[in-house]
Amino acid sequence: MKSAILTLCAVLALAATSHATAGDDLTTVDGVLATELGGFNTAKSDKQAAIESKRSDVVAKQAELQTAQDTFLDLQKDYIEKYDYHQLSLQNVTDKTAVYDAAQLALDNANAQKDDCPAGQEATPGCLTCTDPDYYCVFPDVNGSPMNRKCDCDQYRAYLINQYTTERDHTQSVMDSLQEGNNPIDEYEQQATALATLTALKAELQGKLDAIDAQQNDHDAFIAALEEVKNIALNEKIQAEDERDMRDSIQAAAESAKTAKQGEVDNLGGELKTLVSELKTLQSEYETLQNEHFDTLKTYREKIRELISTLDSQEVSAKTAIYFEKGGYAEIPSVNLRNSFTIEFWAYFDPNSNNRLQLPVISQARIPGGDDTKFVFQIKLRGGPREKELEGNGHYDYYFWDARMGSPESPGYAVRLWGNHMNHNGWHHVAMTVASNADPASSTATLYVDGVENYQKSLSGSRWSSPENIMINKIKDSHGTRFGNGAFDELRIWSVARSEAEIQASMHGIVDARTEPLRSYYRFDDAEDDSTNHYRPNVLRDLTPNRLDGHYFEPAGLEGSAVQYIRSTAFEPHGANFVNTDYAVYLDSSADRPNYISLPARDFSDSFTIEAWFNVRASDDLTRLPKVSQAVTEGSRREEVVFTLEMV
């Protein structure tokens, strides 16, 4: 983009002031702009394609990330479920272990109680109760050791058997001794008693043995029951541990899947972040590209506007001008002239016309009907020398432009400017400028004719201002009310003192009516603009946004002839001079006074070109238009000519 701006500036640096060069430069700049726009559109399309591609990648990555996140959430939910089941299995193992430990403890206690019954628990199912007081209490066993509440079934049996054996041996001893006696009856009775006692003891001891066997059977059954409970608890504990191990493996697998998916989500998130960052970079580059394009386009537009303005200011044709004669004049609204200003216009006058006594003038009165010392400004064409002006016959040796400004501080003028002596024929450009400073006495007024400074002078004192309309070709002074004769074109009033260079740059072309500080601008092309519905009879259009439209006036009975729109040649290089000049010859013919030019014959039998400049004034006899022709023979009829080039 910057290179394009440099290219554009290089093109503009070569721009010349001619109309053709400005047109060529405009074409060149237009080509550069078209190339630049093409390059921008290509870069823009490429960047947009890259953005769309990256945006598609972002959308795809977002979808992939969303899928991964959904999967992760499912895995996380599954992991939580597996974790809960695992926790339940752990609790189940804990519970089953507690049941098993309790069963084992009960079994251990029961086995321990077989040999040692704690005090107060003799009646419990695991405690074997020895009902024999002698054995139950502290009593020496066969070995002389006290039982001390121990219930040793084997020792108890040995104790009972020993007791029976002792009693049997005692009975046998008694019976043996009775057999040695002398009283058989007594012996028999004693033997019977001894046997009965032994039998009773045996029965008693057998009962105790049966009781202890029954208790031992009950204890064995109790132990067996506890063993079964313990085995069941052990199996349930083993099953719980197996389930725990399985749940542990399932939870580990779920956690591993969840962790792996979490890593995938994190990676996808990082990739998405990178893609979004790249997308933002592309969008930023696109925005920068657009801004550079807008800046470049703005520069192009400004430069093209300058070239168009140059083309406008160098427009070949001024279209039409307004021509006054026979008392026709115009009025335009007042503009504040208290500060710096410029009044410039093209004026046409033919000193050889029948109206040579009525010279062009433009002025503004301070008050209605004021004389020549009571006006704001006055710019008029005058003839000289003074004595011929006083003669009033219009036969002057020379002409000059006279510009004046009134002053409230003196009966004369605040300033008066005299233009250079000239042979006024045709169109001339006139400009009056005033550069005002803070101190009015230090302001400077300058008169320019045809873009060249003619006179400059400092103003003395303040200046008039007025709401009165500005008059074109009408003035009232000490000589009365007078009307000028001639044409005006391109009247412009600025609220700034334009320089000589600025005046020269725009005097041969139109300007943009929106240019600041242009306050009013009259091109006098109103009749030609009729096709665009801008034309209003008697209205002089101000083209600036201020719309200070003026009006022209004609005496009664002279409507359509006292004020006319004519073709303007003010901008044309040779169009400013129509009579007695180095550039043209003027022929004024009539029926009794034929005027013509005879040139040597030429051979027109082959290819040829004939070209010439023609000009017809508004005051000319329009029944006699200019022409160039060659007859076949002298006195030939109109149809018998080699060629005729004529205005019709």
Structure characterization notes:
This protein has 7 helices and 20 strands. By secondary structure, the chain is α+β, with helices and mostly antiparallel strands. Strands 1, 3, 8, 9, 10, 14, 15 and 18 form an 8-stranded antiparallel beta sheet that branches. Strands 7-6-5-4-11-2-17-16 form an 8-stranded antiparallel beta sheet. Strand 6 and strand 7 form a beta hairpin. Helix 1 runs antiparallel to helix 2.
Poorly predicted parts: 1-20, 135-150, 574-583
Describe the sheet with the most strands: 8 strands, antiparallel
Count of helical segments? Answer: 7
Rg over CA atoms = 69 Å
Portion in beta strands:
15-25%
Distance between the termini: 55 Å
Strand/helix succession: HHHHHEEEEEHEEEEEEEEEHEEEEEE
The averaged pLDDT comes out at 77
- Overall 3D shape: rod-shaped
Derived from helix and strand composition plus strand pairing, the structural class reads alpha+beta
| Total E-strand runs | 20
Helix amount? 40-55%
